[in-house]
């Protein structure tokens, strides 16, 4: 029995040649064509049968309050409503905390953030559920709310105990240091803004189990939580994740709640159930990157070399622990970035506030620690009147030194990377030109100033929770020579599937098109770790390789006996299997022969990361298998009159080890860099004084666009194998590039510093929006930001009164109807016109390319 598919070349025409798209080649993303064509199937694209129910949540509008009464009668009577569930209707487990308890699926008595789920509406359509949820009448007893890091620190309000890392005697080092500098930096959070919002679809099975389709980075956690809230054993719940439209950490823990609600309703009514969050709901009810307020005191010698550091890192965690313990830990691990602290004391606080629980985000706390170090380096340089790059180079780790948490520095090429980048980007010449250009601008009264910065990245690769550093895979070879692969990693657009397919193809030395990767499923590979911590390729790739090696060993053992040759003489090369000098078979022929002789052609694979450990009680160990390294040099221009800026040029040199797929890796570097630039320059999360998210839609929360890219941009890979035994000596490339964007922020800081002749460190916040840049410029110039003017008390009073009458009106927003003397004016050229200039287009619109209504609407 033999079959050759037309989907790829048959073995009769697959001549002896190097396999196509093996590792090290830039194979395109496995879903690239379907992404561009719009045919890739996401959870909400799954065709749903008639009778599918849809969910919407009723949300709290108080940051901290006791719920006294909920009248849901109008909700139940609304059109299309089938059922309404509140806390008392939950059938089993009610807490879905990922690591620690404290995250109720629905509010029982106490609401602790605006947007917390009070009840769930079950209806025949998404629209009907949404409309019905608005009809609830809820009575609250408001309680005092803590909404800032400062208030939480003042009240010692934490979601988890504080943690401390110590090395040497930092207090004595600071006391004896010739130069001491103190500083603080505040950085806001960041919205994930994945293109596909939170969504889940659950189908009840005929055996009483549940099939869960979810957009989640952690299928096993979703499986387990859905099982717990529905009172089912884990094996009765199967989670399926084919792809996500972006995740960035926002779907590591916070995809679970929606799957749990769908699971409860699906089991209760025995029908398929779907739930998706609209963009504005998604932004309000899901967690963000942690906001941090960090302080440092550093002691230096006269040359600018660090002698001791005392740091306090305080993260705004929200109302519950979520992953905050590990996130603040990672901020503490990375508060050195690439620099050696001979003596250090680092405190990490997990501040509880009455806001949505913040969660994982690309970098997982690392960027907040790293940016503290980079701001401190700028502070040292401008205080001592030195070039910031030289201060950075002088304080870099050397091989053999250890971090403030005890990990020995090995294979540390960062000085080489930075020096090479400085040379390739002509840093020193450009820096001198920029200094002269700024001096000339000052002399001529120009508002433009230039800035340049070259910053490094050292990012630890591994989950800091040791248990998660494991992975499994499943490989089948069919009798036509095609290969099926399944593993525990999830695909969120980052190219994980294609890279692991390349690994499998490489192990058998066959063309990539013979390998197919199927959706991540908990019934194929169990107990999976989340696709996070940049570990996706490292651990799942090794697991897939180990599965291939098991199958390969069986085939080699059989062929050696069958053809009476030594095992060492059997080679898998160029789509063929060479049996010494006796025989050459195509790969498919070899597989067919093995099958006919009853050789197993299927295997699981497993991998656990070696070497790592961390004793948290001593704050000492080796939490990371290795460090990913990189550097970026950015040049910017700012307008000192408006605070506006543009990135003129950026050069990146990043260490991806021996790259498995250079195109995918460079794409990750570019995407991570732009996302990091968004966090540091444009994306501003704002809550009002009542704890409501003001930046709650794309209209008032700005992510980077194509117009924000550097005008001149070069991204190159540093060509060096990873010295640790990772898969093909590659290095992780998911999170580390995010922090390359520090170069842009530091370049803006450099441009502002030019106004003080580089003798004073600017007070620049993160994100460095044009407003923040202008504030920093005015502080540097000694100009007050506040404008002296009489306050129009009548308008203020009317606004406050209007806000009290209309809870949807934020008291710090001036709405059009509140502007005095405003009236509607029709310009003469359109007065009296009621229709478009092209009435035929109105009557017969071209909708050929328009997307139809969502399912069941």
UniProtKB/TrEMBL annotation:
Its EC number is 1.17.1.4. One of its GO terms (molecular function) is xanthine dehydrogenase activity. It comes from the Bacteria. Gene3D superfamilies: Aldehyde oxidase/xanthine dehydrogenase, a/b hammerhead, Aldehyde oxidase/xanthine dehydrogenase, molybdopterin binding domain. Keywords: Molybdenum, Oxidoreductase. Residues 818-836 have a biased composition (Basic and acidic residues). The keyword Oxidoreductase applies. InterPro entries: Ald_Oxase/Xan_DH_a/b, Ald_Oxase/Xan_DH_a/b_sf, Ald_Oxase/xanthine_DH-like, AldOxase/xan_DH_MoCoBD1, AldOxase/xan_DH_MoCoBD2, AldOxase/xan_DH_Mopterin-bd_sf, Xanthine_DH_Mopterin-bd_su. The keyword Membrane does not apply. Residues 817-857 are annotated as: Disordered. Residues 37-144 form the Aldehyde oxidase/xanthine dehydrogenase a/b hammerhead domain. NCBIfam families: xanthine_xdhB. Belongs to the xanthine dehydrogenase family. This is Xanthine dehydrogenase molybdopterin binding subunit. It comes from Psychrobacter namhaensis. The gene is xdhB.
């Amino acid at each position: 029995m033999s079959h050759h598919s037309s989907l790829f070349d048959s073995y009769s025409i697959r001549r002896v040649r190097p396999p196509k798209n093996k590792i090290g080649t830039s194979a395109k993303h496995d879903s690239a064509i379907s992404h561009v064509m719009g045919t890739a199937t996401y959870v909400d694209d799954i065709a749903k049968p008639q009778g599918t129910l849809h969910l919407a949540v009723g949300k709290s509008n108080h940051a901290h309050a006791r719920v006294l009464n909920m009248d849901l009668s109008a909700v139940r009577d609304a059109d299309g409503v089938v059922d309404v569930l509140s806390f008392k209707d939950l059938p089993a487990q009610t807490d879905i905390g990922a690591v620690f308890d404290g995250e109720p699926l629905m509010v029982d008595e106490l609401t602790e953030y605006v947007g917390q789920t009070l009840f769930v509406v079950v209806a025949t359509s998404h629209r009907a559920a949404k409309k019905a949820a608005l009809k609830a009448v809820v009575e609250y007893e408001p309680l005092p709310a803590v909404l800032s890091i400062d208030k939480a620190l003042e009240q010692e309000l934490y979601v988890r105990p504080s943690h401390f890392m110590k090395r040497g005697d930092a207090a004595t080092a600071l006391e004896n240091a010739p130069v001491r500098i103190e500083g603080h930096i505040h950085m806001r959070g960041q919205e994930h803004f994945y293109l596909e919002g939170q969504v889940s679809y659950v189908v009840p099975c005929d055996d009483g189990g549940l099939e869960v389709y979810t957009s989640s980075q952690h299928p096993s956690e979703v499986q387990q939580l859905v099982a717990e809230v529905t009172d089912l054993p884990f094996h009765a719940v199967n989670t399926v994740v084919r792809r996500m439209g972006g995740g960035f950490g926002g779907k590591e823990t916070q995809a679970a709640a929606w799957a749990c609600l769908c699971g409860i309703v699906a089991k209760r009514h025995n029908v398929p159930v779907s739930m998706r969050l609209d963009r504005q709901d998604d932004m309000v009810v899901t967690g963000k990157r942690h906001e941090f307020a960090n302080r440092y005191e550093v002691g230096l010698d006269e040359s600018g070399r660090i002698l001791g550091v005392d740091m306090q890192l305080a993260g705004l965690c929200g109302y519950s622990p979520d992953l905050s313990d590990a996130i603040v830990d990672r901020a503490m691990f990375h508060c050195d970035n690439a620099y050696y602290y001979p003596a250090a004391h680092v405190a990490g606080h997990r501040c509880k506030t009455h806001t949505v629980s913040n969660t994982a985000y690309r970098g997982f706390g690392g960027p907040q620690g790293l940016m503290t170090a980079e701001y401190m380096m700028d502070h040292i340089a401008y205080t001592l009147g030195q070039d910031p790059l030289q201060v950075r180079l002088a304080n870099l780790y050397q091989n053999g030194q250890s971090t403030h948490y005890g990990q020995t520095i090995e294979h540390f090429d960062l000085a080489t990377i930075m020096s090479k980048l400085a040379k390739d980007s002509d840093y020193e010449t450009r820096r001198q030109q920029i200094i002269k250009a700024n001096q000339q601008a000052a002399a001529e009264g120009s508002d433009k100033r230039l800035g340049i910065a070259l910053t490094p990245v050292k990012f630890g690769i591994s989950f800091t929770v040791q248990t998660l550093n494991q992975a499994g895979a499943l490989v089948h070879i069919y009798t036509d020579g095609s290969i099926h692969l399944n593993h525990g990693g999830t695909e969120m657009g980052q190219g994980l599937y294609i890279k692991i397919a390349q690994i499998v193809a490489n192990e058998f030395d066959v063309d990539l098109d013979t390998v197919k990767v199927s959706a991540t499923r908990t019934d194929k590979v169990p107990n999976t770790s989340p696709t996070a911590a940049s570990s996706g390729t490292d651990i799942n790739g090794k697991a897939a390789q180990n599965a291939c090696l098991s199958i390969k060993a069986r085939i080699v053992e059989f062929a050696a006996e069958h053809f009476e040759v030594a095992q060492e003489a059997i080679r898998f090369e160029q789509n063929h299997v060479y049996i010494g000098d006796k025989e050459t078979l195509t790969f498919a022929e070899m597989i067919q022969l093995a099958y006919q002789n009853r050789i197993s052609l299927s295997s699981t694979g497993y991998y656990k990361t070696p070497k790592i450990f961390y004793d948290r009680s001593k704050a000492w160990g080796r939490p990371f298998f290795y460090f990913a390294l990189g550097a970026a040099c950015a040049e910017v221009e700012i307008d000192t009159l408006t605070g506006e800026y543009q990135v003129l040029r950026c050069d990146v040199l990043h260490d991806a080890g021996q790259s498995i797929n250079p195109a995918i890796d460079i794409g990750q570097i570019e995407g991570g860099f732009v996302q990091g630039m968004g966090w540091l320059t444009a994306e501003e999360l704002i809550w009002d004084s009542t704890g409501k998210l003001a930046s709650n839609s794309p209209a008032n929360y700005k992510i980077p666009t194509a117009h924000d890219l550097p005008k001149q941009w070069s991204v190159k890979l540093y060509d060096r194998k990873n010295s640790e035994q990772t898969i093909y000596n590659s290095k992780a490339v998911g999170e580390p590039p995010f922090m390359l964007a520090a170069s842009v922020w530091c370049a803006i800081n450099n441009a502002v510093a030019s106004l003080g002749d580089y003798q004073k460190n600017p007070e620049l916040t993160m994100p460095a929006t044009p407003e923040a840049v202008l504030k920093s410029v005015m502080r540097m110039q000694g100009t007050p930001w506040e404008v002296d003017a009489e306050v129009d008390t009548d308008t203020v009073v009317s606004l406050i009164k209007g806000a009290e009458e209309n809870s949807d009106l934020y008291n710090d927003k001036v709405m059009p109807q509140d502007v005095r003397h405003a009236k509607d004016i029709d310009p003469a050229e359109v007065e009296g016109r009621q229709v478009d200039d092209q009435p035929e287009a109105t009557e017969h619109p071209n909708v050929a390319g328009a997307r139809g209504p969502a399912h069941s609407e």
